[in-house]
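ok so heres the complex, two chains, lmk if somethin looks off
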Amino acid sequence: MSNIDVKGQQIEVDEDGFLVDPDVWNQDIVEAFAKLEDVSELTEDHWKVINYLRDYYKQFGIAPMIRKLCKDTGFSLKQIYDMFPSGPAKGACKLAGLPKPTGCV
Amino acid sequence: MKIPLHMAKEKDLQAAGLRAVPEEEKQQALVKGIDQYRQWARSLMVMLETCTKCGACANACHSYLGTGDFNNIPAARADLFRKLYKRYFTWTGKTIGRYIGAEDYDAETLAKWVTYFYQCNECRRCAVYCPFGIDTAEITIAARSIMTALGVVPRFMTGVAANMIKTGNNMGIPKPATIDCCEFMEDEMKEETGLDIKIPVDKPDSDILYIPSSADFFSNVDTMIGVAKFFHAIGANWTIPSTVLEAANFGLLFSMDAMKEQNQRMREAAKMVGAKLVVQGECGHGWRAAKMYTEGANGPAPFGLVHILDYAYQNMDKLKFEKLPWRVTLHDPCNYARAGDIIEQPRELLKACVSEFVEMTPNRERNFCCGGGSGILMDEMMDIRMQLGKKKAEQVKELLPLDFFATPCSICKAQLPHVMKFYGMEDLKMGGVMDVVGKAIVLA
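and the predicted structre for the whole thing:
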């Protein structure tokens, strides 16, 4: 467990750099994570993915199936990797403040 | 060499129902742990007593071949355990210990155990080449299980264990999400085939209980879709259980107690729907845990138990395929080929489904592990995982070009895309054998 500095505020992240408490999530944290995840600029498309993940997580308590994420946002898996270089699980979920998907992934 | 593994802290242990033994009591607890384990696992005793250090295992082990680290030679790895066994449980070890390779517990013991028992994929290839059949996987399983009881366990394992306690699967998928995933996959199949193919959840009075890998509800969608199409094609009365949406049984990889508990979950789920047959999904070690330990751990089972690849193979006469114009090879998951009797079935299925099936060398029970086996899937272990996957990458490279690489185990499916990318084969398409069955099957 460690902290990252987000505009002077200390935010707790786990060993994999994911938010410990998904409820503290805000736009500043997304921007801080974006830099760590090699996302150069947060576009409208990035936000579409991030908001979709957050809404799904709020409703179901887990990240959606990757194929469902692609279908519902209209982005191909390749486009998601272009936007979030570490991919939907390790990149997009981190920015959206979800816990790290674990198990055989 | 120390490995960068993130170990569980107090909070992680608690969430997994575990606790840390205080530092000053660790030695005593470790010795007691070895004693208890050897009482019920005679196999461990035989393996600890037998090794002659002939070295036949060295070149059989992809972990040693990939890392070049002496202690990753299976005999050397096992010796980390054997030294303590000798010191505390043999009369020669107690009296003239240092002359016969016995060693006292010291400040480095647990660090060494973590380092080397978490670089063993429990693949059992060494056992195939050892003239005595010494199976280092058994020793690794024992060492990890003993360490877990001390609270010395990777955070990755406790995270999975906590999800299993909370939701009945490694990923932590709650039932409403499971139902949402099934509806999504049913819609996908409807779009593709025009047919109403169902994935029933907790359906009472089902003949078959199908236990998928939870990763099939996140990344390996085509495996679950292939299975649903297959059950549809044979007109099966089947369901998946929300209470144990997990063919994997990580207990085998870090705690025999956890393995036993999960096995009990599977039995209860079968009872709840009245299933006469439990079919296990594409997961290597989970199949080993189910096949080899179901009755041993929890007594006689009132249902049959079969692997999906075996069950699909047995039903091939009821299936119609349109061959895909693909050149395909098969990676034999270690626990199928060396611990689970699933060797020819995936080959027969693939041959029926694709135009060209090619074997990698070596194959079947001599195949190399993907390098992620035994749950070495932690991000912080990525550099070591790539070294462990080196032999596999070399095997695949020799067969290029390939249209598809069949890897019918969720750990392999998680590990191999990284390995292929690292060794310059990023574009290779991969997935399960049931994925291929689902694409080639002709449905009425």
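quick notes: The two ends of chain B are 58 Å apart (CA to CA). thats all i got rn
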